[in-house]
Amino acid sequence: MNPLVQPSTGLGRLLTERLFERGDRVVATLRRKGALDDLQALHGDRLQQLTFDVTDTSAMRTSVSQAFMTSGRIDLVVSNAGYGLFGTAEEASDEQIEQQIATNLTGSIQFIRAVLPHLRKQGGGRIVQVSSEGGQIAYPSFSLYHATKWGIEGFVESVAKEVAPFGIVFIIAEPGPTATQFAEGLDRTATMPIYEDSPAGELRRALASGDLAIKGDAGNTVKAIIKVADMTAPPLRLTLGSTAYESISHALKERSESLETYKDMALSADRKEVA
User: Fold this and answer.
1) Cα–Cα distance measured from residue 65 to residue 32, given in angstroms and rounded to the nearest whole number
2) Do 162 and 119 touch, CB atoms closer than 8 A?
3) How does pLDDT run across 105-148, given as a tens digit for each residue?
4) Which of 153, 173, 195, 202 is most deeply packed, by most CB within 10 A?
5) What is the pLDDT of residues 236-271, one digit of tens each?
6) Is 131 part of the annotated catalytic residue set?
7) Catalytic-role residue among 108, 141, 145, 247
8) pLDDT for residue 32
9) Does the active-site annotation cover 253?
10) What is the homologous superfamily of the domain 3-241 according to CATH?
């Protein structure tokens, strides 16, 4: 396999290491030069590094074209650039909101758009979009982060139908809380005292005290992503970790029950001649 990965830290880097272990060549896209120099020293020309910021669409398109030109064929593309903003919607600054959307949503959309023509031309390929359980559920104080994850999941689900005739297959990976550097890298909003006694304040205190249970294992998460990416017919969504499984199951059940409870109300909105 010849994958294209965004691996500076966390799951992306670990995924890159696992791909090398099984003998793959990797094209890595980085925001910071030098982040993978140790892997370059170990694996030589099996690693190709390209540097760009996902918020710079022009540079990204140029680098993606270069990656496909020099590699000949790329079988797997992993989109996992991420930025986490912690704080309520009211507390966030305009600049923080813009960065959250530009990185997680617009950046991911433009990265996928950049690779699609190349995958279509070569006759297909796989795209793994790393989302999170936060693409199907919501915690207080992560409202802007959730907006991007729900948004990218809707985008991918639609695009998957558009490009299926060309042999392009999508997988949305949805890890729950996992032992990576994500929590340490969170950008935090200013705090407003009015939220101290709210669910947002409770989560803030729990995160600060380290009381939140992190059940997900990064190695096992990456192993599952690679296994599913190798499947002949992979699922569109891959839930990863017991926390994600339980929270998403609960959310889907609640939505299904609410849908059925208000079924008559839903049907009442039809035109009378249709009803």
Assistant:
1) 19
2) no
3) 999 999 999 999 999 999 999 999 999 999 999 999 999 999 99
4) 173
5) 999 999 999 999 999 999 999 999 999 999 999 999
6) yes
7) 145
8) 77
9) no
10) NAD(P)-binding Rossmann-like Domain (3.40.50.720)
